[in-house]
Specification:
The protein is α/β, with parallel strands linked by helices. Among the domains are: about 240 residues, Rossmann fold (3-Layer(aba) Sandwich), CATH 3.40.50.10420; about 70 residues, no CATH class. About 50% of the residues lie in helices and about 10% in strands. The longest helix has 23 residues. The chain is globular. The relative contact order is 0.13. The structure holds iron/sulfur cluster. Iron/sulfur cluster binds next to helix 14. The site of iron/sulfur cluster has 13 residues, from helix 14.
């Protein structure tokens, strides 16, 4: 994943604190996450045999992970036989170079993109733009954050942090748009259908001018060599059929063994994501346009990206994070995400699953605070249709952080905990100068975490140190 100096999980603490004080952001997030959870609740209520379908979707994802090398090989064979050129990318830089090479090869000047988290992960747009190519996000939410020069703040709703008035102001400023009448400036009170129509007009000409379409992949079917894409706006279908060349980029875990497994996943994904029985558009693409067919790209490419996932698979506990099919429900149910939104995480993946993926895909030194931003309330686990146990994985990540660098304070604490006499001496001396132990942690030079620890807690006042109380209690019971 590619980070900039300002957009990084290294600043997660400061970014989340700032977000906590942004009342407008909280109001927008509250409204949007409630809306998604409400729609999802209604859809799942009416979903007969829901648990059976959830179990089938999980089984399909487990099969994919357990047979990954074989399935990816089969996918390559079948996709190649169907006429798609398959590329393997070890990391983000290689993936960018592959797509840039394809763009150069077809002389692309304009690229249209469908919403794709994996292209955000590899920072594809800046790489293509550096080659002088115009890149247009065509999903409405992605289009909005592209205009705002911001990263997405939600896996399925990239501009969830923006209000309708924010979007109207953005269109007015960046596109110089008048209202639908064409007479006066676009009003902040413009309706959502009006804003959508204006975006559609702006994007329509880009579809027609595009030389290359780039999308992600929801599911790649090993059995047939197909890629499946789900969406609600029709922009992905346009991006894959208008330009003469289509590149689909998938992270390697997105494979499914068969069309039947893909169907099991598709029965659950839209219901969990947007509360729909099925997304408005489901495209199953198998190779380029054949002779006699009226639409479709004449040249198709599939880029299979690893970017650290093989290492995640090697961890028996953490590999569970790769089951995720990005429905976004755990973000909407998470009290932390509901409070701070996606940008505070400093990574394109946010919320519970974003914390896991970012911690696993990015350098450990950049993400050490992320797993500690989780309350371990378990709302994500309860919501996840694939049964991913986020809290268990968070604890595993915390263990890794602590094992990696215990730090001076932690090492000192361990020593004292293992040496009762030394503990009593140190604590006795400390209490002699600071009876409530709320001043010493603020001494300059001590780790900042100690001060925030006492700032955020009000320990009860103890008449005697705990160890002395324990000794007295034991004496009373006649113990040692
Ligand atoms: S972890 Fe589960 S709930 Fe969260 S996005 Fe992935 S599949 Fe959806």
């Amino acid at each position: 994943m590619v980070l900039t100096s300002t957009f990084t999980p290294r600043n997660f603490r400061e970014q989340s604190e700032k977000a906590c004080h942004d009342a407008t952001l909280r109001a927008v997030l509250d409204h949007a996450t409630r809306y998604f959870m409400g729609k999802r609740g209604v859809a799942l209520e009416a979903f007969a045999d829901r648990d059976t379908h959830f179990a089938r979707a999980r089984a399909a994802r487990l099969t994919a992970l357990s047979r990954l090398p074989d399935l990816l090989e089969q996918l390559e064979q079948r996709a190649t036989a169907a006429g798609t050129k398959v590329h393997w990318a070890h990391d983000a830089a290689q993936a960018r170079e592959i797509v840039a090479g394809i763009a150069r090869g077809c002389g692309a000047k304009v690229v249209v993109k469908g919403k794709s988290m994996v292209t955000e992960e590899i920072a594809l747009n800046p790489a293509l733009e550096a080659d002088g190519i115009e890149v247009w996000e065509t999903d409405l939410g992605e289009f909005i954050v592209q205009l705002a020069e911001e990263p997405p703040s939600h896996i399925i709703a990239p501009c969830i942090h923006k209000s309708r008035a924010d979007v109207a102001a953005l269109f007015r400023e960046k596109l110089g748009l008048a209202g639908l009448s064409g007479q006066e400036d676009l009003e902040d009170s413009a309706s959502i259908p009006e804003l959508t129509l204006l975006a559609r007009r702006a994007l329509r000409e880009k579809f027609l001018a595009a030389d290359l379409g780039v999308t992600g992949v929801n599911i790649a079917v090993a059995e047939t060599g197909s890629v499946i894409l789900v969406e609600n706006e029709g922009n992905i279908r346009m991006s894959t059929t208008c330009p003469p060349v289509h590149v689909a980029i998938m992270s390697l875990e997105k494979v499914a063994a068969s069309l039947e497994d893909a169907a099991d996943i598709l029965r659950v994904l839209p219901r969990s994501a947007t509360g729909q029985k099925m997304s408005s558009y489901v495209s199953v693409l198998t190779g380029p346009r054949r002779s006699g067919e009226l639409d479709g790209a004449r040249e198709t490419h599939l880029v299979i990206l690893d970017n650290g996932r093989s290492e995640i698979l090697a961890d028996a506990v953490l590999r569970e994070a790769l089951l995720c099919f990005r429905c976004g429900a755990c973000l909407n149910s998470c009290p932390v995400y509901q409070t701070i939104g996606g940008h505070a995480y400093g990574s394109v993946y946010s919320g519970p699953i974003g914390t896991l993926l970012s911690s696993l895909l990015l350098p450990a030194k950049d993400t050490r605070d992320l797993p500690f931003g989780c309350t371990l309330c378990g709302a994500c686990k309860k919501t996840c249709p694939l049964g991913i146990d986020h809290p268990k994985l968070m604890l595993r990540l915390r263990e890794r952080v602590c094992a990696g660098s215990p730090g001076l304070a932690s090492a000192a604490h361990t020593f004292l905990a293992l040496h009762p006499l030394a503990y009593r001496l140190v604590m006795g001396a400390a209490r002699a100068v600071d009876p409530h132990l709320n001043l010493l942690p603020r001494l300059p030079g001590l780790p900042s975490g100690l001060a925030s620890f006492v700032d955020s807690r009000q320990p009860p006042e103890l008449k005697k140190p705990f160890t002395a109380q324990l000794r007295n209690a034991r004496k009373k019971r006649g113990g040692a």
